[in-house]
Amino acid sequence: MEIAELTAGSVWTVLVDSARRHADREAVVDDRERLTYEGLTAAAFQAGAAMAAAGVRPGDRVALWGPNSARWGVIALGAHSVGAAVVPVNTRARGAEAAQLLRRTQARLLFVADDFLGTGYSAMLREAAGGPGPDGPVAGLPALRGIVDFYGPSDGPLTGWPEFVAAATAPRRVHLRPGVNAAPGPDAVAYVMSTSGSTGEPKGVVVRHGQLVRTYTALGRRLGIGSGDRILGVTPLSHSMGLNAGLLAALLSGGCYVAVDVFDPATALSRIGRESITVLSGPPTLFTDLMGALAAGAGAGYRPPRLAVTGATTVTAALLERIRNELGIAQLVTGYGLTEATGTVTARHPSGDAGAAALGAPPLPGVELRVVDAEGRPVESGTAGEVLVRGFNVTTGYHDDPGATARAIDPDGWLHTGDVGVLNEAGELRIVDRLGDTFIVGGFNVYPSEVEQVLGRAPGVAEVAVVGVPDERLGERGIAYVVATPGTSVTARELLDRCRRELAGYKVPTEVITLGELPRLASGKPSRRALRELADRTRRGATGSGGSAAGTPAVRRA
C-alpha cells in the first residue's frame, strides 16, 4: 500500500501519518489479530469503503457495540475515513439502553460483537425495539440500515464481517488530499460519547476531531509517550479515557495499543510482561485489583510498566505509594477529566520522586480553570467550590439537546462540571467530589472524598466509598462502604476510631460496612447511587427491628 499526501487535523490523518512514519510497527494487538500501522490503515480504509457502499455518508453516525479489540479500532477508523461519526455503546448496556442511544443519534449502521460473553446483542436490541422492521433490521430504529457482526458470518438480519467487507475493495493508494475520500476536517464530529449517567439519564457528548488531536497531542507530550510505548487497553473503548488516552494516544505517538476484552487481574499481569507494556492507565480499581492478584501469587512473567496514569476522587496518596511499592511502577501521574471536556483537563508531569504522591494537577496548555461558589463567584485559593473549565477541549454541546447544553455551558464558554475541587496558588486542581455527592450533616457540608482519604490510608483497606443517607435528626448522615485488601481483614470499630481521631465529629460516618466489591458504573467508577439504594434497602429492611436510633454510630459488617 502507498500512503499519499497527509492532511492534518483528524483522527484518520493521525493514523495515516503514523503509518507513513512507522509502517512496520505494531499498532493494535488483541488475542485474534496483530496489525501493523500499514495493516491497520489498509483494513480501516477497506472498512470505510464498505461503509460507503452500504450508504454511509459524511456526517452519518456509525455505532459500535463490542469489547476492546483490534477490530473495534478498524471499524472506528474506517468510519472516520469516510467522514462518519462514531457512537460507542458500552458492552454492559442492555437492549433498551442501546436502542435509546441509537435512536437519539440516528445511527445508520451498527457493528456488534454478537454473542460476546454469551450476550446476543442484536437479538437483545430487536427485542427492546420492536423486532425486525419492514425496511431495516429493527422496527423501532428506522434510521438503522444494517447490523454487522465483528467476526461472525451472516445470519438472518445480521450481516457477517466477510460479506460486509467484500462489498468494497480498498484501492491500493490511500489519498488524504482535501475532499478526497471524505477525510474529515478538524471541525467534523468524531464521536458522540455517552455520559456515564452517574447523575441522571446519559447524554450524547459531541467530540470533534480537532479537539481530540490537540488534547491528546498535548497529553502525550506531557506524559512523555513515544513510539516505543505500548499501552494496555483495559478501560472500555466506549469510555473517553479508554478510547482517547488509550487507542488515540498510541496512534498519535506511533506506539501500540494492546486491547483487553475481558479483564482478569492475573491474566493482565502476565500479559503486561508478555507484551512489554510500558503505560498502564485506568481507574483506581484497576490498580487495586492488580495489586491483589500479585500479592496472591499471580503474574508469572510480570514486568513493571514505566508509567501509571490514574485519576478520580478516590485516588489517595497511600494508593499511589502502593502502586509504586507493590507494582514497582516508578512514574505516577494523576489527572482529571470528563467526557464534556474531551476526557482530559489536567495531568501531572510524570515523577518518580515524592512529588508523585501529590493529588493536584495543572491544566493542559490552553485550558482555563475556575472554582466558584454556589452563586458563581470565584473562591479563594484552597477553598472548595464547583469546577469550571473553558478551552478548546470543551464540547460544543450535547447531541440534539440544546437545553442540556445551555445548562452545562454558560454564555462565556465556561463548562459547569458539577465537580467540586480545590485550586491551589500554583494553579493545580484537586478534585474533591461531585456536587450531588456532597451531603449535609446537622447543617455542615461533608465531602465524601475527604472521609475516603482518611479511610483509604488505613491498613487493609483496598477501596472505600462514602455516601450520605437521610437521617431524621441530622438531616443526613454518612455510611462508609469498604473493600478489604485480599488476605487481610478490617474492623469497623478501628476504622471509625481512625475517623474520630482525624475528622470533625460531623464528618465521621455512623456506619462502616464491608463489601466484597463496590458496585460500579459502566466507566468503572464506584456507583454512589447504587450504594445509596443499598443503604435505603437495608434501612427499610431494618425498620422496626430494634436497631440503633437514627444518627447513633453503629458498627456493622456486611
Automatic annotation (TrEMBL):
InterPro entries membership: AMP-bd_C, AMP-bd_C_sf, AMP-dep_synth/lig_dom, ANL_N_sf, ATP-dep_AMP-bd_enzyme
A Pfam family hit: AMP-binding_C
Ranges where the AMP-dependent synthetase/ligase domain occurs: 17-399
Domain AMP-binding enzyme C-terminal stretches: 450-525
Region (Disordered): 535-558
Protein name: AMP-binding protein
Species whose genome carries this gene: Rhodococcus kronopolitis
